[in-house]
């Protein structure tokens, strides 16, 4: 299953609350009563003789239904697409419902819906009307897709398409090209027949991991035919019907289309290395641009930056603090799990070359998976649990080492925790503790460059 689209969940909850509010307002006309009248009778005038509270609840309930359904004039408008406006209006609806005796249930529903909408807002979502969601065209079933031409991150569910729309992505949709089944004909002269062997038929599966596995396996089939038969053998309709329908490739920005650029000038104190850009980062060109990412918060709390910057300040960090950014993989994806191990390993020598060319004082790998890839390439095996640790690594693991005349011992490596808001393996306090160690060293090096006295215990071990 894909990630939960929280604004749709909030929409359904608010629709329920609004329907309840309309019903409670109508009942309030018949039996006018303020919920809090057992505490004070001061608000009784709001329901009788003039049903002010009932009318307001009826109006707000109808507004909620028209807003969330929505009515045609509202669909796609700024108020309809804005979660911020909802977070201002719906608390008022909840208050009006809570004052009416019959409105207790809609008030509770409103509070839950407001909480869900706030959750969606904190993750950068916005409301999307049904008219904005274009269904993908039907897939032709008379062709076999060429799986090896489909990048791993393009094999996604329909949720992937919705997620791209929610982040304002006008992704170009690609359709699979017509490809006949490849047949390797090996002819053997017999009396009246020839044998065709080794027909590669990739199995279509529903998940990217299974697709990659299926792409490596082939099914060998032997077919006999007479010499007078045609040399081209068409797949049988029965096999085509039994083959699961492939998922439609959904595109995000490619490595060449991504707006993000490396910031690795000479004389850096620290080079921060991420896994790969997210979709929002690839579009905006700013590192860790998603609101749920903790990168900018951890830079500030650790002392690497004295203030909390915003993603738009990405290209200011080298000049202000001698801190640069790059990634081990340039291809943007919705999340790092969509990268293959081969992609990660292929990025290691590229990263080593960048470090060797620009020679920063230290390299920070932002995430355990980057260090695991470096370890696999260097040692030819995966890192064991007892061998892994966050923080500074041994001098033998320095990155970008240059041998020979004019050589360089390489940059010390610091392995930091991931800053992704989706990673729940460590508590925020534990992440801050790891980053604080790096921050102390960066602050000390900055002071040394400015000619200030620093404490000796902050040196790299």
Characterise the protein shown here.
By secondary structure, this protein is of the alpha/beta class. Among the domains are: 6-123, no CATH class; 270-450, Uracil-DNA glycosylase-like domain (Uracil-DNA Glycosylase, subunit E), CATH 3.40.470.10. It has helices at 6-30, 52-68, 78-81, 83-99, 104-122, 158-166, 208-216, 237-242, 279-284, 295-302, 317-321, 341-358, 368-379, 428-449, and strands at 193-196, 223-226, 270-274, 323-327, 362-366, 391-392, 413-416. A 5-stranded mixed beta sheet has the order 4-3-5-7-6. Helix 2 runs antiparallel to helix 4 (83-99) and helix 10 crosses helix 14 (428-449). The protein is elongated and about 95 Å long. The two termini are 44 Å apart.
Question: How are the elements arranged and paired?
Answer:
Layout: H1 6-30, H2 52-68, H3 78-81, H4 83-99, H5 104-122, H6 158-166, E1 193-196, H7 208-216, E2 223-226, H8 237-242, E3 270-274, H9 279-284, H10 295-302, H11 317-321, E4 323-327, H12 341-358, E5 362-366, H13 368-379, E6 391-392, E7 413-416, H14 428-449
Parallel strand pairs: 3-4, 3-5, 5-7
Antiparallel strand pairs: 1-2, 6-7
Helix pairs in contact: 1-2, 1-5, 2-4, 4-5, 10-14, 12-13
Task: Describe this protein with a few key phrases.
single chain, 461 residues, alpha/beta, Uracil-DNA Glycosylase, subunit E, five-stranded mixed sheet, two-stranded antiparallel ribbon, 14 helices, MUG/TDG, transmembrane helix, DNA damage, membrane, pyrimidine-specific mismatch base pair DNA N-glycosylase activity
């Amino acid at each position: 299953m894909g990630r939960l689209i929280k604004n749709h969940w909030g929409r359904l909850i608010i629709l329920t609350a609004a329907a309840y509010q309309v019903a409670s307002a109508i009942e309030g006309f018949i039996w006018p009563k303020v919920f809090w009248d057992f505490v004070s009778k001061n608000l009784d005038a709001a329901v009788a003789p003039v049903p002010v509270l009932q009318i307001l609840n009826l109006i707000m309930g109808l507004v909620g239904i028209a807003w969330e359904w929505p009515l045609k004039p509202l669909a796609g408008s700024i108020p309809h697409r804005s979660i911020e406006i909802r977070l201002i209006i719906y608390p008022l609806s909840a208050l009006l419902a809570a004052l009416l005796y019959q409105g207790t249930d809609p008030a509770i529903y409103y509070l839950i819906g407001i909480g869900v909408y706030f959750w969606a807002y904190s993750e950068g979502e916005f409301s999307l009307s049904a008219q904005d969601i274009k269904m993908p065209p039907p897939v032709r079933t008379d062709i076999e897709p060429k799986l090896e031409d489909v990048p791993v991150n393009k094999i996604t569910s329909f949720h992937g398409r919705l997620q791209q729309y929610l982040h304002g992505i006008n992704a170009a949709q690609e359709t699979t090209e017509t490809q006949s089944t490849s047949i390797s004909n090996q002819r053997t002269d017999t009396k009246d027949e020839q044998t065709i062997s080794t027909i590669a038929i990739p199995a279509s599966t529903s998940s990217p991991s299974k697709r990659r596995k299926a792409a490596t396996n082939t099914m060998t089939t032997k077919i006999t035919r007479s010499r007078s038969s045609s040399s081209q053998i068409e797949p049988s309709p029965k096999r085509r019907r039994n083959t699961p329908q492939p998922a439609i490739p959904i595109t995000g920005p490619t490595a060449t289309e991504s707006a993000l650029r490396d910031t690795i000038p000479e004389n850096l104190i620290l080079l921060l290395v991420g896994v790969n850009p997210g979709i929002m980062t690839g579009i905006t060109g700013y590192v860790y641009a998603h609101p749920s990412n903790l990168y900018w918060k951890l830079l500030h709390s650790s002392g690497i930056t004295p203030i909390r910057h915003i993603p738009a300040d990405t290209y200011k960090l080298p000049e202000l603090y001698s801190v640069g950014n790059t990634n081990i993989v340039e291809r943007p994806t919705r999340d790092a799990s969509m990268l293959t191990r081969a992609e990660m390993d292929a990025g290691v020598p590229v990263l080593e070359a960048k470090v060797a060319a620009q020679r920063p004082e230290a390299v920070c790998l932002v995430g355990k998976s980057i260090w695991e890839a470096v370890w696999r390439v260097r040692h030819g095996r995966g890192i064991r649990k007892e061998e892994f640790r966050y923080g500074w690594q041994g001098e033998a693991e320095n990155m970008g080492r240059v041998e020979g005349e004019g050589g360089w011992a390489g940059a010390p490596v610091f392995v930091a925790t991931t800053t992704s808001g989706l990673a729940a393996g460590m508590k925020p306090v534990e992440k801050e503790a790891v980053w604080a160690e790096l921050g102390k060293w960066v602050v000390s090096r900055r002071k040394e460059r400015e000619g200030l006295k620093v404490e000796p215990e902050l040196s790299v071990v």
